[in-house]
């Protein structure tokens, strides 16, 4: 697939990754094709210098490592997250109203709710089944055609609809699935989809983690294709960019890509950035290839660097006043360094200087974002990873519009630029 352009590969990855589980499976597939060996956290590891390995946790977070050909003395780390805000199904999702079988939803992360109305929605995630022999298995499901929709209420019945009316996700956002029917019908549909996708006919679904998603495929937009429009750009765009850089690097240095789940809900989970996943993996690697013991591990971490990649807010032509006049990143203006004095981003002048130098080396323009002093600031995995691990960290990202919408927009030139910069970073012999 590497003959396609980076943008074509990106659009394909976005379309095939409706959930974090699908994203991780697709990343793992590309890593294995490039010679990466899968490790199992429950088994002993045997690692050799120069090897390429990867490991997943909960099938929704992934760490890939290019082990250095020489001594393990410093790691060039790239961080991203696999999850996106959206509407997830409740455990007992099937509900009825006015002769329709509907799916009750729970809100995952900071969802921009209004754009979810009147979309052609598919359904994806994972289902755990019990087979007739008692074996329990988890399988991925992707119902990639429009099976549901959340219809708007006509303006004639709500004259205040355009006046900033609040949206109640409990009472107003249940998705319409089937005329008539009952909860047994939803179970029957689920079994039919599992049969169609996996040939599973006689297993009983025990539980699921399923989410609705927009089936409209990603696209290039704009008179000259200047833009990419897609669901889940935040933050599958960074997962893709980090993966491309890792696959493009020369393999001489120690390189790590970590893509965590659960960033959009605070990162506090076994597989989230606040959990022990990255630390666990790096301690095991250091025990075999580095200087043993706590001191050796701390020295490795302090000699390493982390570039956390999560998208930045681009200057919006209709809302220019939402940005500080000197810090309005432009779409297709190059990667954005994210700065916040209150440590909502982990960037400091030392880590920022390294990135400026990498951009100069890669001949890529660079921008800086800081929020207006009278507005709050979102956060990302950068400060959490820096806090948990102690690694010097920098927060960067591609500029985008419509963050946390069902369909987001970014520049078609920016992904390839950040890939170039991060590849230079992974190839760099000295990190200071």
Automatic annotation (TrEMBL):
Annotated Gene Ontology cellular component terms: cytoplasm
Superkingdom of this protein's organism: Bacteria
One Pfam family recorded for the sequence: Peptidase_M18
Molecular function terms from GO: aminopeptidase activity; metallopeptidase activity; zinc ion binding
Keywords linked to the UniProt accession: Aminopeptidase, Hydrolase, Metal-binding, Metalloprotease, Protease, Zinc
Enzyme class at the top of the EC tree: hydrolase
Biological processes, Gene Ontology terms: proteolysis
EC number: 3.4.11.-
Classification via PANTHER family: ASPARTYL AMINOPEPTIDASE
Family to which the UniProt record says this protein belongs: Belongs to the peptidase M18 family.
Record's protein name: M18 family aminopeptidase
Record lineage: Bacteria, Pseudomonadati, Pseudomonadota, Gammaproteobacteria, Oceanospirillales
């Amino acid at each position: 697939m590497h003959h396609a352009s980076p943008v074509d590969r990106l659009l394909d990855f976005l379309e095939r990754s409706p959930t974090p589980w699908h994203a991780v499976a697709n990343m793992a597939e590309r890593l294995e094709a490039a010679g990466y060996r899968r490790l199992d956290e429950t088994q002993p590891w045997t690692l050799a210098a120069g090897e390429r390995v990867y490991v997943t946790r909960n099938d929704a977070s992934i760490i890939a490592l290019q082990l250095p050909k020489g001594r393990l003395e410093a790691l060039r780390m790239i961080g991203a997250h696999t999850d996106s805000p959206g509407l997830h199904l409740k455990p007992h999702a099937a509900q009825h109203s006015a002769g329709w079988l509907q799916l009750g939803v729970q809100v995952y992360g900071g969802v921009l709710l209004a754009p979810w109305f009147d979309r052609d929605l598919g359904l994806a995630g994972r289902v755990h089944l019990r087979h007739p022999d008692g074996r329990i298995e988890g399988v991925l499901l992707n119902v990639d055609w429009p099976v549901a929709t959340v219809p708007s209420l006509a303006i004639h019945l709500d004259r205040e609809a355009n006046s900033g009316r609040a949206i109640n996700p409990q009472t107003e956002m249940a998705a319409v699935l089937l005329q008539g029917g009952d909860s047994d019908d939803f179970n029957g549909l689920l079994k039919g989809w599992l049969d169609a996708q996996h040939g599973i006919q006689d297993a009983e679904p025990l539980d699921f983690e399923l989410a609705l998603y927009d089936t409209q495929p990603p696209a290039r937009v704009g008179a000259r294709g200047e833009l990419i429009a897609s669901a889940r750009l935040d933050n599958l765009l960074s997962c893709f960019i980090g993966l491309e850089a890792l696959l493009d690097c020369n393999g001489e240095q120690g390189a790590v890509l970590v893509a965590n789940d659960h960033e959009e809900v605070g990162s506090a989970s076994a597989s989230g950035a606040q959990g022990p996943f990255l630390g666990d993996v790096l301690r095991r690697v250091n025990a075999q290839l580095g200087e043993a013991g706590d001191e050796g591990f701390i020295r490795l971490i302090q000699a390493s660097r982390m570039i956390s990649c999560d998208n930045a807010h681009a200057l919006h032509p209709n809302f220019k006043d939402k940005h500080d006049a000197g810090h309005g990143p432009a779409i297709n203006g190059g990667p954005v360094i994210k700065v916040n004095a209150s440590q909502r981003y982990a960037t400091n002048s030392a880590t920022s200087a390294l990135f400026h130098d990498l951009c100069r080396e890669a001949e890529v323009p660079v921008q800086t974002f800081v929020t207006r002093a009278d507005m709050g600031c979102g956060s990302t995995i950068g400060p959490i990873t820096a806090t948990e691990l102690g690694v010097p960290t920098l927060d960067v990202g591609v500029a985008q519009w419509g963050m946390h919408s069902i369909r987001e927009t970014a520049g078609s030139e920016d992904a390839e630029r950040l890939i170039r910069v991060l590849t230079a970073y992974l190839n760099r012999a000295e990190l200071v």
